[in-house]
Amino acid sequence: MRFTKTRKSEWFTQPTMAGHEWCKDTIFLAEEIFTKYAKTKRTKALANYVIKDIPEWHYWHSISKKELNLLRWVLRRIDKAFTEKGGLTNLLAMYQSRTGCLKGRVDWVLEHLAYTYDKSARVKDYARNMGFWGMNKKESTNRLTEYQKNLVQKHDVEKVA
Fold first, then answer.
1. Which of 10, 46, 74, 161 is 20 to 30 A from 38, alpha carbon to alpha carbon?
2. pLDDT value, residue 136
3. How far apart are the C-alpha atoms of 65 and 50, rounded to whole Å?
């Protein structure tokens, strides 16, 4: 995929600051990841949801190389996760162990996919995690269901699934 809107912007064609050059490198890396790893319909939808074609250079400056490498990591593994029982929940857990506390677009998509296609494993994992905080299975299941409703409304993750 080529970011055509971004490539037509003035800062891309005639860079005047060091930040513009940094952003061009980020765009080239993102395009490389998209062409190499986003081959199926599912991976293309995920990649297009996570990285937008926004012509503003501040957007590209805020994307780190680590974030792009984690996206690459997810794109390489997501098709296999759909074939295994509990695979999406395991992929989500492995991804979140690498990223830290802050959630982003990849977290939201993986949570939604795990809840939609791997519901029993996701509910079991969530109930086990919330059990640490003193919640029983019914309370944690209700909380997860409410969280998923809010996630769909707020972040529009259904178009990836």
1. 10
2. 93
3. 14
Q: Would you give the DSSP letter of residue 62?
A: T
How far apart are alpha carbons 124 and 127 in whole angstroms? 5
Separation in Å, CA 118 to CA 12, 87, 111 = 42, 8, 10
Both tokens of residue 104?
A: 């982003």
Residue whose tokens read 């005639």: 14
Take residue 41 and report the two structure tokens written for it.
Answer: 């319909």
Over residues 37-75, the pLDDT tens digits come to 999 999 999 999 999 888 999 999 999 999 999 999 999
Q: Which tokens is 118 given?
A: 């791997």
Element (H, E) at 75: helix 65-83
| Structure-token pair, residue 15 | 């860079």
